[in-house]
Specification:
By secondary structure, the protein is an all-alpha fold. 76% of the residues lie in helices and 0% in strands. GO terms for molecular function: purine nucleobase transmembrane transporter activity; purine nucleoside transmembrane transporter activity.
């Protein structure tokens, strides 16, 4: 878990010094899985809180990062592993002071994103919310190109355009699936808030990748968890400040009493929401560590169809023609991206094989030349 990848070597991909190719693939798969679970189910718990009587937007905002104490468990496991290899002098925390301030700033940006995200999901059906959030990929791609010089092929652009177009379709039909007892103004505000959240988090993902590249210390998965802990702590502090100003702490007991599913279920929904969102955030930064911010954004958008299906079945939401078109574009864009990644991976393997052959051939020729010279010398012996 601690196999190190320096900030310079990390950009070289899975063969980076300090971590085997297979280990990095397993780690990438693990982070993709936890990102998928959080990305698909966390919006459903958010909506469950809202539709059953929850009205505190700042509370829901804080829950998106309040699960950071759960990170202590994998951090302890990582420390035990590192201590076995490094001895009793191994420090529990490896994060340098230089990284603390950037992580706090990113955490505050995440807190602001959480507020817009929570305000959006509380006003929109989950299916609409998910599809509008898919525009995040376009913003992620743009900022990745600007900040970390991400390279794109035609199929990458095609995937980004298709996935972003899926949310644009909804912009022309806002209000077609207006929830009961909700004004059109609230619906439009939720749409704009969700779009703003997509834009801001599309900026945050490449910023995290840039921080990994510019860090002046070895970037390990243990350090990634420590950085996530600091970012989530700062985001939660930002949101708790909003809760204090909005007097949410005084309102929570009253809200729990009136919650349609009961007080116990109210508490369970809050805890589950915090845990699921932490899975999402840890998975997102983990995918950035193992691959790139663009892949993290692609996965978030590619998982939307599952969120669509779950929302329709669980909350009996309408599946309008506009959502069907958006779903089709999202699937098409996802397939386009992963097909291109598959092609690029095959090209890399072929190039590596050709390079190894070009190294072997001169050696064989040299051996043949030496044998020929020995034969000539032997033939000249009287």
């Amino acid at each position: 878990m601690e196999d190190g990848v320096s900030s310079e070597n990390r950009s070289k991909g899975p063969d980076a010094k300090g971590m085997s190719k297979s280990m990095k693939k397993y780690l990438l798969v693990f982070n993709c899985v936890i990102l998928s679970v959080g990305n698909c189910i966390a919006p459903l718990t958010n909506r469950l809180y809202s539709v059953k009587g929850g009205k505190r937007v700042w509370l829901m905002c804080a829950l998106e990062t309040a699960g950071f104490p759960f990170l202590v468990i994998p951090m302890i496991i990582s420390y035990i592993y590192r201590r076995r290899k490094g001895g009793p002098k191994t420090k529990f925390l490896s994060m340098s002071r230089v990284l603390i301030l950037p992580c706090i700033v990113i955490g505050i940006l995440t807190g602001a994103d959480d507020y817009m995200d929570s305000a959006g999901v509380s006003r929109l059906p989950v299916s609409t919310y998910s599809l509008v959030l898919s525009s995040q990929l376009g913003f992620t791609a743009f900022f990745a190109w600007i900040l970390v010089k991400q390279k794109f092929t035609f199929l990458h652009f095609n995937a980004i355009l298709l996935l972003t177009a899926g949310s644009v379709v909804l912009a022309f039909h806002t209000g077609s699936d207006l929830p009961a007892k909700e004004s059109k103004a609230d619906y439009v505000l939720g749409f704009l808030m969700t779009l703003g959240a997509a834009m801001l988090y599309g900026f945050v993902l490449p910023i995290i990748e840039l921080l990994y590249k510019k860090a002046k210390q070895t970037i390990t998965y243990s350090l990634v968890m420590e950085m996530q802990f600091v970012m989530a702590s700062a985001a939660t502090a930002f949101c708790v400040g909003g809760m204090i100003i909005n007097k949410d702490f005084q309102a929570i007991p009253r809200e729990a009493e009136k919650y349609e599913l009961g007080k116990a279920m109210y508490a369970l929904v809050l805890v589950a929401d915090a845990f699921l969102w932490q899975l999402f955030f840890l998975g997102a930064v983990g995918v950035i560590f193992c691959h790139s911010s663009l892949l993290s954004g692609i996965l978030i958008s590619a998982l939307l169809p599952l969120s669509e299906v779950l929302a329709v079945f669980i909350f009996n939401e309408k599946f309008t023609p506009e959502k069907g078109m958006s779903l089709f574009l999202s699937c098409w864009g996802s397939l386009s991206y992963f097909y291109e990644e598959h092609k690029l991976e095959k090209k890399k393997k072929q190039a590596a094989q050709n390079e190894s052959k070009s190294i072997e051939v001169p050696g064989d020729l040299k051996k043949e030349k030496c044998v020929a010279e020995d034969d000539d010398q032997a033939s000249n012996i009287p």
